[in-house]
Design goal:
Blueprint lengths: L7 H10 L1 E2 L1 E4 L3 H13 L3 E5 L14 E2 L11 H17 L4 E11 L6 H15 L8 E4 H7 L8 E12 L1 H14 L3 E4 L1 E9 L2 E9 L4 E7 L2 E3 L5 H7 L8 E12 L8 E5 L5 E7 L2 E5 L3 E2 L11 H14 L10 E12 L14 E4 L5 E4 L6 H20 L24 H15 L6 H11 L3 H15 L2 H16 L5 H8 L2 H4 L1 H19 L3 H19 L3
Parallel strand pairs: 1-11, 2-3, 2-12, 3-8, 5-14, 12-20
Antiparallel strand pairs: 4-7, 5-7, 6-7, 9-10, 10-11, 13-16, 13-17, 13-18, 14-15, 15-16, 19-20
């Protein structure tokens, strides 16, 4: 249980007593991917994150591992090819949280794409991305489109297209990558903030950091340091006195959540907004989420704001494509907001900026990476680790393995079969038969299964134990989940659990209010909190809940 919060003091001690081949600052998907790539090649690796893992952009995206169809518009063919092919790799390595999703693209009057251009774009997309035959595009008549999604029957609808994307849980994907990195020997510690750099002969040698949970100053030494902090990349470049030339351009994207009864669609839609932008509406069990906006942002990076204007923009977009639903502001169950750390380009609007990643080299030796997409995290990591490996070879004549992550199943994705959806569904059904004696419903069990994958046994076995004591299905499974996240996923707070390990604040916010206090009691028991610490956690979570439902 090396990745347990209960083992954290040992982890912090390791940070201060070793000199690593590589120290990564930033615990989002980019940093996690770099840690896994480097440690599986044979490097000694440490990673620190000032908040919880995935607390920034990597828990606030559209939650799609997608092939980059929109990049065709800007003729970024290389990017389409790269992320399209990576999509299949990410699915194979984490099939429990990267799930194929049919996507309907309505073709409307005066829209971005006509029937011919849509057909051509999707053909090129399928070819470049290497899309397998069963998931290649299909053009639809207006009648076929309406049959699939009756809500979008309107005079402006001309036809449609069907293609595939892959939906995911971005923060869970990040956690599964980190767990696999830790399994291979990386030290990954949350709530450790890099404050300043340590130099020798004008070369970067280490980091002075604060262990936030213990309010202690520590130093971490490494032969190579990578700045993978997403929206905070330029802040660290500034501390290194290397913020020159290209810089980060922050844009904000928000997503809003509706009850499926209020927006009854069974297939995801990718549709025109009417101002040359496109928006997704994606079903997830009994909710639908809609996003995203794309606006310039220059305010608080930790908690990007959600305005009524942002929310209304998305509501208006849905009402245009599905005029009979007549959504209103009070139909929104919850919302989230995230930042894109893009590379600034003069004269371009936010939605026109490239999503391509870029690596910055400082004279001090600091490596910074910014931009990029969730789908391409493994390729971004590969590029960074290649640089580190070359440096270590030149200085120490050490050779490392080539990239190992293409066929490396992530934690929770280690299924004993090829993970297509039929095999996955059958496996989940068999697992349910083993644990249904606790009274859990098939829907609730599958929600957990697609959260933890092959690690479901560790959760289920504890649920069995707790059920024999508590005799309450909901509470026994809640306690089992909390136990698992404490011992295997390094949660330190209630917010870690409800936001980034379960995603409940995004998709099942009403359920949090029902179990918040009892969850606090259980976590207090596991982490030996006093009453003051428990109440502090409750208050912090309530602040996050308010941010999700109250808009400026």
């Amino acid at each position: 249980m090396k990745f347990s919060i209960l083992n954290r003091q040992t982890q912090v001690r390791s940070l201060t007593t070793k000199k690593y081949d590589l120290l990564i600052i930033g615990g989002g998907i980019t940093g996690a991917g770099i840690a896994l790539d480097a440690v599986t090649r044979g490097m000694s690796v440490a990673l620190i994150e000032m908040q919880d893992f995935a607390a920034g952009t990597s828990s606030r995206s559209t939650k799609l591992v997608h092939g980059g169809l929109r990049y065709l518009e800007h003729l970024e063919l290389g990017l389409v090819r790269e992320v399209g092919r990576e999509r299949e790799i990410v699915h194979n390595n984490a099939a429990h949280i990267v799930i194929p999703e049919k996507m309907i693209l309505p073709i409307i009057e005066d829209g971005n794409l006509g029937e011919f251009t849509t057909s051509l774009a999707l053909y090129v997309y399928d070819f470049l991305a290497g899309v397998k035959k069963s998931e290649q595009k299909k053009m639809l008549t207006k009648e076929e489109t309406v049959k699939i999604i009756p809500l979008i029957d309107s005079p402006i609808l001309k036809a449609g297209a069907l293609y595939y994307e892959y939906k995911t849980d971005d923060s869970r994907l990040t956690i599964e990558v980190l767990k696999k990195a830790v399994e291979h020997g990386a030290e990954c510690v949350n709530y450790v903030k890099a404050e300043s750099f340590i130099y020798k002969n004008n070369k970067i040698k280490g980091v002075k950091a604060t262990d936030i949970l213990n309010d202690e100053e520590i130093t971490v030494y490494a032969k190579n340091i990578v700045n993978a902090t997403g929206p905070w990349v330029d802040g660290l470049r500034k501390k290194d006195n290397s913020l020159k030339g290209k810089r980060i351009h922050h844009t904000k994207g928000i997503h809003i959540v509706f009850d499926k009864k209020r927006l009854p669609i069974n297939h995801a839609i990718y549709f025109d907004t009417g101002d040359k932008r496109m928006v997704f509406a994606i079903p997830r069990q009994d909710i639908i989420y809609v996003g995203t906006t794309d606006t310039d942002y220059s305010d608080n990076l930790e908690n990007p704001t959600i305005t009524k204007t942002d929310v209304q923009y998305l509501i208006d977009a849905v009402n245009k494509i599905a005029p009979t639903v007549k959504l209103k502001l009070n139909d929104v169950k919850s919302a989230w907001s995230g930042l894109r750390p893009l590379i600034h380009e003069e004269g371009k609007d936010p939605s026109e900026l490239s999503r391509k990643d870029e690596i910055f080299h400082s004279k001090t030796g600091l490596i910074s990476i910014a931009g990029g997409k969730l789908t391409g995290y493994r390729i971004m990591a590969k590029d960074v680790v290649k640089i580190v490996a070359k440096r270590l070879f030149e200085k120490e004549n050490r050779e490392f393995l080539k990239c190992q992550t293409k066929n490396l199943r992530l934690s929770g994705g280690e299924f004993p079969f090829y993970p297509d959806m039929s095999n996955l569904i059958n496996y989940a059904d068999r697992k349910y038969d083993e644990y249904k004696q606790t009274g859990i419903s098939i829907n609730d069990f599958k929600r957990l299964f697609y959260r933890y994958g092959t690690n479901i046994d560790k959760v289920s076995e504890k649920a069995f134990d707790y059920y024999s004591e508590i005799r309450d299905t909901k509470l026994s499974w809640l306690k089992a989940e909390l136990h698992y996240c404490v011992n295997y996923e390094s949660i330190a707070t209630l917010s870690d659990f409800f936001i980034r390990r379960t995603g409940m604040i995004f998709f099942y916010i009403d359920e949090i209010y029902e179990i918040l206090n009892v969850a606090a009691d259980m976590l207090a028991e596991f982490l030996n909190w006093d009453e003051k610490t428990k109440q502090k956690n409750i208050e912090e979570l309530n602040i996050e809940l308010k941010r999700s439902v109250v808009f400026d």
